[in-house]
Amino acid sequence: MGNIIDTIGNTPLVEITKFHSNRNVKIYAKMEGNNPAGSVKDRAALNMIRSAMERGEITKDTKLIEATSGNTGIALAMIAGIYCLSLELVMPVTSTRERTLTMQAFGAQVTLLESMEICRDYAEDKAATGDYFILNQFANPDNYKAHIKTTGPEIWRDTAGKITHFVSAMGTTGTIMGNSIYLKEKNPEIQIVGCQPTEESSIPGIRRWPEEYLPKIFDASRVDRILDISQKESTEMARELVKREGIFAGMSSGGAFAAALKVANEIEEGTIVFIACDRGDRYLSSDLFA
């Protein structure tokens, strides 16, 4: 028996069966929406808060602040509430209403600003006053270390070490960095594939960062290949996943799946795992499933 934090991780690995005919190529979705706050970011949020508390950087009197596009913020709000920590989340005004309401339900203060870059600057400026502690998922090693501790080992275990390709959307890049470190240590031949939006596309949870905002935790040498995915592809694949496979996930998951299918169509045999990073109900007020 434990509290809700103890249910983070050990998410299912579900085979995709209706999108390709080569039986020698297996595609699996890592179902991160099954985490209690609904996304892969539960892992990083827990590791960032818990590790900072263990180091004495955070106490009950600390005021936390973080810029987020949504999923990290929801996870932080849940975990901060459990630890009785004050939290301000700074999010783009374009974020879906469900995200704002969920963060507030967990007890966080939400500030909405024009863009993700402005949100990051705002949070860093507030932290610089000394009155707030910024978790800074974009530069915090505890972000990717969560996946070295949990996600990578789970994928290796549940594929019996047969994984040949790991596919992930890239936002803060914590998920792809941590899994790359772990999986490459187990087998250097595993291909790490990231996906980013095409120049003209806007995909929640996947970013094509300007150079000055590139996450500091990102190490390009740990990614074997980056695929550009369009907004149209991400939308269509998210819709097809729920209709044909019953996997209800968001646009970034659709983008990662689109990348996984591209890889599947190029190889004769292999085991591909992609991150289905959150749940589709987080997008119902948008036109994603309209």
UniProtKB/TrEMBL annotation:
Its cofactor is pyridoxal 5'-phosphate. It comes from Sphingobacterium anhuiense. Residues 6-278 form the Tryptophan synthase beta chain-like PALP domain. The keyword Transferase applies. It catalyses: O-acetyl-L-serine + hydrogen sulfide = L-cysteine + acetate. It is an enzyme of class 2 (transferase). Keywords: Amino-acid biosynthesis, Cysteine biosynthesis, Pyridoxal phosphate, Transferase. Transmembrane segments: none annotated. The gene is cysM. GO terms for molecular function: cysteine synthase activity. This is cysteine synthase. InterPro entries: Cys_synth, Cys_Synth/Cystath_Beta-Synth, P-phosphate_BS, TrpB-like_PALP, TrpB-like_PALP_sf. Pfam families: PALP (PF00291). Pathway: Amino-acid biosynthesis; L-cysteine biosynthesis; L-cysteine from L-serine: step 2/2. Its EC number is 2.5.1.47. Belongs to the cysteine synthase/cystathionine beta-synthase family.
